[in-house]
Amino acid sequence: MPPKPTKYAHLSIDGEADAIDLPIYQGSEGTPVIDVAKLGANGYFTYDPGFVSTASCDSDITYIDGDQGILLHRGYPIEELAEGSNYLELCYLLLNGELPNQAQNDEFVRIIKKHTMVHEQLAFFFRGFRRDAHPMAIMCGVVGALSAFYHDSLDIENPEHRRITAHRLIAKIPTIAAMCYKYSQGQPFIYPRNDLDYAANFLHMMFATPCENYEVSPTLARAMDRIFLLHADHEQNASTSTVRLAGSTGANPFACIAAGIAALWGPAHGGANEAVLTMLRDIGDEKHIGEFVKKFKDKDSGVRLMGFGHRVYKNYDPRAKVMQQTCKEVLEELGVENDPLLRLAQKLEKIALEDDYFVQRKLYPNVDFYSGIILKAIGIPVEMFTVIFATGRTPGWISQWNEMISQSYKIGRPRQLYQGHSQRRYVPMDKR
Ligand code: ACO
User: Does ligand 1 come within 6 angstroms of the Cβ of 272?
Assistant: First the structure.
């Protein structure tokens, strides 16, 4: 429910005396919103392609102030969460609204671990895909297929069903993500190990084989945990809005999350860290950095420095600061001297951070710059990057979906500005 209006906007069409009064609401933080819901009854719709000025819902979960570089989950700054907590604790916070105490945390971790395995039958779905299928294509299909397995918890009006579904999704998504990778490698699926924590278990399922154990490095597990944590929610972005829109029809949550995964797949959304690696490959060698930096600064070249700049964060990306530190730790542990691409990334970062063009435009590295490098250093192939993003974003999607279902909500049904033909008569084939 929106708060009580603080003021009213008065919309007068062509100076007519009878203005339409539109309530203005002020949230606990951020830009006030004008409620235009009653405009339709007055014979007008609003027009805002891309929703650049439109709030689609009210929410208590995440707040972003791009100018100040602030990202809060349930009021807590992302830097403090990254420093003091871990991914599963953040999942609990997003889902329940408050940080867990020790007993609540232990119980939550126990429940998530209980759900890490997927139904054995689900493994057969994978065999229907080509081995060279993009892992996002597989993930989309397999997550959607989960709705066929959990009929026992699909009553969306039942809060207990919603809770179980949220737990199942958070627990099973990394298992499915690792299965997507294993399938593409032609390797057998690796079962989860519940003695490991969430991120370490993911690395185990990715890199162990039946004939060889994978010793999970605590530094890499911590880096993986942070990557999940930093992607957990980002308020009403395209994929989250997709989940909400699909959910507004009453569709089951597994189908809604599959829709979110599909939206995330686009290069304008989840593909940026993949683009960082592609750019590094294009540069190829440290000796080409100079000519590429020239191109990045030349608008006519159409080439941008991928992983720098952000549509929302105009001063800095608070998540990037955390990732930069983690990146340093990972590269120190693994040693970058053997990897020319990682060496190249470090050189490029240094040059861009000192270059006037980037400094003046406040173009800092965003979270994708560092997450791309970290994932590459850990040995995760580029095609898996968006799958990892989807894995981390799942608690955000399911929390936002749950919030919507627990409020009173309407089916999402935008209007349009129609510019096609007015009504005309059908012309028979022989008269055209
Ligand atoms: N490389 C070179 N120049 C850049 C870059 C860049 N990465 N980003 C912005 N600029 C320049 C623009 O050309 C513009 O220059 P001008 O003032 O001389 O005209 C100036 O910086 C300001 O740019 P904006 O137009 O304000 O930036 P915009 O909001 O349109 O773009 C975006 C933001 C799309 C993220 C952009 O910075 C970019 O393309 N970055 C690289 C791609 C990337 O890393 N995307 C991931 C973002 S994070 C995420 O989505 C999860």
Answer: yes
Cα dihedral 51, 56, 62, 65 in deg (nearest 10) = 40
CB under 8 Å to 116, separation ≥6 — which residues?
171, 172, 174, 175, 192, 194, 201
Ligand 1 geometric centre to CA of 236 (Å) = 20
Beta bridge partners of 25: 33
Distance CA 172, CA 77 (A): 27
13: tokens are: 């069409």
pLDDT digits (tens, 9 = 90+) for 314-358: 878 899 889 988 998 898 888 866 778 878 888 898 898 899 999
Q: Edge-to-edge, what's the strand order for the sheet holding 20-25? A: 7-11, 20-25, 33-34
Half-sphere exposure of residue 111: CA atoms within 13 angstroms, side-chain side: 18
Which position among 269, 285, 300, 317 bears the catalytic label?
A: 269
Contact 232, 170 (CB under 8 A): no
pLDDT tens readout for residues 189-212? 999 999 999 999 999 999 999 999
Calpha distance 291→162 (Å, rounded):
53
Q: Facing residues of 63 across strands?
A: 72
Q: Is 421 a catalytic residue?
A: no
